[in-house]
Specification:
Helix content is 16%, strand content 44%. By secondary structure, it is α+β, with helices and mostly antiparallel strands. The chain has helices at 7-17, 71-79, 131-139, 197-206, 261-271, 322-330, and strands at residues 2-6, 32-37, 42-47, 51-57, 60-63, 65-70, 85-90, 95-100, 103-108, 110-111, 127-130, 157-172, 176-196, 214-219, 223-228, 231-236, 255-260, 283-288, 291-297, 302-308, 310-313, 316-320, 336-341, 348-351, 357-361.
Amino acid sequence: MKIVCDRDKLNAGLQIVSKAIPSKTTMSILEYILIDATGPEIRLIGNDMELGIETVIEGEIVEHGFIALNARYFCDIVKKLPDTTVELVQGENYKVTITANKVKFNIIGRAGEEFSYLPSIEKIDGVEMSQYALKNVINQTIFAIAGGNEGNRMMSGELMEIKEDVLKLVALDGHRISIRRVLLSGKYAQKKAVIPGKTLSELSKILSDSTENMVEIYFTGKHVMFTFNKTIVVSRLIEGEYFNIDQMLSSDYETKMTISRKEMLESIDRAMLFVKEGDKKPVILGITENVMELKINTTAGSLNENIEIEKQGKDLMIGFNPKFLIDALRVIEDEQVDIYFVNPKAPCFIRNKEESYTYLILPINFTTVD
């Protein structure tokens, strides 16, 4: 194999496919990136058997072939090459020489036959939307998926549901729920799948911010595939039935508060000055006529702040994990937010009238917290 390509384009391609390289694995071949120059284009592929990414880069194929190179060494080498044309030549015993101007690296690869290609998925009955819209809706929900220690694998993914011209993403971790709905430009048959959080997180990093660049989404019983910009992302789905979200949501409330999103976010951010990593200190919201008093009291210090609000219903005092409130408020774009409460022990709902977003947050029983 012998290929010639621009250093920046090679580096950009490696940054895309390296997102599918596992940090730890018992299968050493998964730590490698495949260079496939057997066809008319140069393809780079990373695959950890759960998430696979393939992208095409521009370049000249002088001699056809394919070889797998260690992702860490390969990426680091290319990053440190001068900004010029790069030549990769495969020699005997899987040795690859990487040359750019006067710089020459030698690296030992592995046979391309050892590498597992992405599963083949037919492009049938796909869903199309802008890359910006998909990236946005992922970033507006993904913070609510459970971490690796939660035990319930279903919580480590997000539910993607498509009904006619609406795409809905749902994430939850047992303490909160994030729901976002996006209007699609066409109508589609109903689809429902649980996509791993890692897949969506890595996907959002390589999607563009353009509303004009599109992404196509295809589903099978076990996989989802995203295609865009000469890049393919394929992921296994999380199998099983997702949680019944509808029974967790309620339109009933005893108190409704309308407040400046920016003012509330900045106030909670100030309160976080006294919250250490791992602390369970809540912020306490005292809601009365036209005023919300936000306060926090820790061994390091305390804060009391009043913010003007519009209130409907009963007065209320309730405590929350401040991080959960911040996560939701940061991804809402409205200047004013409506927050609905039932009682001090029931979750609050942050949602707009169109219900394009809904954030449910469980309260903390602050009377039992020191």
